[in-house]
Amino acid sequence: MANLSQIELQNLRHLIGAHDTTYQKLNSYASNCVDPQIKQLFTKSAQDALTTKQKLLTFLNN
Question: I need a labelling partner for 39 at 20 to 30 A (CA). Which of 13, 30, 33, 61 fits?
Fold first, then answer.
């Protein structure tokens, strides 16, 4: 993989932070949910955000 420019690195860090925030918020929403279908939706969406964050982190490790 080619080296990342400063702008690309900043953008990547921003995206990683945004997905982490999304993961945290959706987990919080899920824990406060009473309706099982909505709780499942929040939990799945939180997991998707975490998966995307982890994929983005691989760009920093290469």
Answer: 13
39 lies in some domain: yes
Per-residue DSSP letter, 1: -
C-alpha distances (whole Å) from 49 to each of 5, 24, 46, 62 are: 25, 9, 5, 21
Per the structure, the count of domains in the chain is 1
Q: Please check the confidence at residue 57 and state whether its pLDDT lies above 60.
A: yes
pTM (2 d.p.): 0.86
Is the residue at 47 inside a domain? Answer: yes
9 lies in some domain: no
Distance CA 12, CA 14 (A): 5
* Residue 19 lies inside a defined structural domain of this protein: yes
For residue 38, give both structure tokens.
Answer: 């909505």
